[in-house]
Amino acid sequence: MSYDAIIVGGGHNGLTCAFYLARAGYKVRLLERRGIVGGAAITEEFYPGFRNSVASYSVSLLNPKVIADMDLSRHGLKVVIRPLSYFAPTNDGRYLIMDKDPARSRAEVARFSPKDAQKLEAFHAHLDGNVELLRSLILKTPINPAAGARDLFSGLGLANQVRKMGVQGQADLLDLFGKSAGDILDHWFDTDVLKGLLGFDATIGNYASPYTPGSAYVLLHHVFGEVNGVKGAWGHAIGGMGSITQAMLAACLEAGVEVSTDSPVSEIAVTNGKATGVVLEDGGDLSARVVVSNLNPKLLFEKLVAPEHLSEPFRDRMRGWRCASGTFRMNVALSELPNFTCKPSGGVAEQHGASIVIAPSLRYLDDAYTDARRSGWAKHPAIEMHIPSVLDDSLAPPGRHVASLFCQQFAPTLPQTMPGGSSWDDHREAAADLIIDTVTQYAPNFKGAVLCRMILSPLDLERKLALTGGDIFHGSLSLDQLYAARPALGHGDYRAPIRGLYMCGAGTHPGGGVTGAPGHNAAREIIKDLRAPSAKHLRGKAA
Fold first, then answer.
1. Residue 9 dihedral angles phi and psi, to the nearest 5°
2. Which long-range contacts (CB under 8 A, 24 or more apart) does 482-487 make?
3. 76 and 63 in contact (C-beta within 8 Å)?
4. 2-42+61-79+239-321+474-538 in CATH: which number?
5. 31, 203, 262, 279 — which has fewest CB within 10 A?
6. By CB neighbour count within 10 A (0-12 exposed, 13-18 middle, 19+ buried), where does 55 fall?
7. Tell me, what's the pLDDT at 541?
8. How many CB atoms lie within 10 A of CB 93?
């Protein structure tokens, strides 16, 4: 059977792309290797009566246009804003709260440093101009340096946007793309826990020190979102992150997308330099006018595309494509809520609805990365913990709770000299014990409250969710892997170096996170090509 488009990979961007193509009137087939669509944005029961988001765990970056176009609320999606933004315990028994209310945040920081509290507003203003520039680019196709007039005019438009920022704004932009988050935060503030809390955003999904040049951009990448119209807010999807992709699935089915689970693809079929369909692992084959990959570019071009269809420079680019989040994910079932020594509670308290961040200083974050580089994982990991069951009673039995733990830094590949073996299978339980013990240092009842834990080491993330190297972003968000260079210069416009082959995943602009933007943007470019009067518009690019 032949289709207009075959989508390989049923993650949220694949679903988004499939929806837009089907809505435009094309015959679309989506293929997912697992028994459920959603990729890293799924909800699973991991202990009787306890359900939670498996990998992705919070909502902010999901683009409002995608939400509206797919009518996700009508298909069952409900997102609530976290009542408190951040709760960060310190090593000396204190804590810092950062709230949506700027006045409260200032008061909280003033308990540590009145001088730093006075700088908060100016710091956020420093970020805001650059965040707005990023927001304006999210749903735009990156400029192709080798293309024609359309990209020339787009480049001029972008240059004009930057010009309007003024000299100081341009200097700030240069700093945020070229400097480290640590250098910038040290320039602004003195308070360790404030810098650690802000710097943690620069290390989320980023296997790097907060003092790594370019890490300031990763900080920005995590603050350009919004929830229910509130910019910069973070929220929880009722039912877990799987409720997002299940709503997307409903929108796709309504639009006419044919969805096939348990359908792993073994090869992209290429004939006379054009992608003509796919070969399934069971030996079946399907043909299509275009094939669209929602996979990590490294996985696509090194596993599914035969090497003779790619030039040596492009293959070299993919060999060098860096995939390293340094991420270790856990979900735990709890008999009771953690009771923090620095802010005791007899039950549900405001801190339980916040992002609970254990990153008491930039030094702590830097040491975590250094430890991981030397010995496989951080001796003192940086941890973000959410307890979504305080906002969503569908996730756990009455009086019980679930917690998501997103932990940094854990090497994607362990040193060959590791005692006891060099595979994460040999050390996953020990690393999980360390994470539990770390939280217990701040909440003494935590370890005893753990009924069950779902462990996802970097290797588990790769095997379960096809996240190469455990990379939640499908490729590091470094300057050489951003915008028009994501995944390669000349191919940042979602068109692969093979006619009829496209990319719609997080390995394209604007990168990782549950945004839907790569799927949206890729669909727009594919529709342009499918509607073009001549087949030459499907010739792709020279690799």
1. 110, 120
2. 482/217, 482/509, 482/511, 483/137, 483/142, 483/143, 483/509, 483/510, 484/142, 484/143, 484/144, 484/145, 484/509, 486/142, 486/511, 487/297, 487/317, 487/318, 487/321
3. no
4. 3.50.50.60
5. 262
6. buried
7. 42
8. 11
Per-residue pLDDT at 169: 65
What is the dihedral sign for C-alpha 91, 333, 405, 389?
negative
Token pair listed for 452: 């069950």
Cα 32 from Cα 15, distance rounded (Å): 10
User: Which among 77, 7, 12 is positioned nearest to 38, based on CA atoms?
Assistant: 12
State phi, psi for 274 to the nearest 5 degrees: -125, 135
Task: Dump pLDDT digits (tens) for 16-42.
Answer: 999 999 999 999 999 999 999 999 999
Given a contact cutoff of 8 angstroms between Cβ atoms, the answer to whether 260 and 35 are in contact is no
Cα 204 from Cα 215, distance rounded (Å): 10
What local confidence, expressed as pLDDT, does residue 124 receive?
85
Spell out, as residue ranges, where the chain has pLDDT lower than 50. 537, 539-543
**Cβ neighbours of residue 445 closer than 8 Å, sequence gap 6 or more:** 336, 338, 339
Question: What one-character-per-residue DSSP string does 325-364 give?
Answer: --EEEEEEEESS---BTTB--SS--GGGGSEEEE---HHH
Q: What pLDDT, on a 0 to 100 scale, did the predictor assign at position 155?
A: 59
Q: Where are the domains of the chain?
A: 2-42+61-79+239-321+474-538
What pLDDT was estimated at residue 399?
A: 95
Kindly report the number of other CB atoms within 10 A of residue 416's CB atom.
7
Interior CA angle at 453 toward 447 and 459, to 5°? 125
Give the C-alpha distances (Å, rounded to integers) separating 135 from 129, 203, 512: 10, 21, 14
